[in-house]
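Order emerges. One example.
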Amino acid sequence: MKNYCNVTDSGMEDKANGSVDTKSPVENGQLPDPANWGVADVVNYFKATGFEEQATAFQDQEIDGKSLLLMTRNDVLTGLSIKLGPALKIYEYHVKPLQTQHLKTNAS
C-alpha cells in the first residue's frame, strides 16, 4: 500500500470564502504515478484525499492504476455512479493531474 504525505486530516483546505479545495497527496515533491497501483491503492488514494464515501465506487468498478489513467471525464461523472459535485472534484483535482503527471514522467 502507498503512503501519501502532506494530506491534512480531511484532505481539504478551507478557503476564506467558505469553499473547500481538495488537495492531492504528494510524494517527493510531485504527484504519485498510479501506473502500478492495484485497486486497493486507488481506493486508499481517494480515501486519503477526503473522498472516503466515493472511494468505494472505485472498488466496486475494480479501477486499478492503469484504469484510472485511462478514465475520461465522462467515465468519472457517469460511470462511477457518484454525485456530480464530488465526481467533478475527483476528476479535475485528482484524475486529470495524475494523468498529466504520468504523461510528463513517461515522456522522457
About this structure: Residues 1 and 41 are 6 Å apart (CA to CA). The helical segments are 39-48, 52-60, 65-70, 73-79, 84-107. The chain has five helices and two strands. The beta strands are 12-14, 20-22.
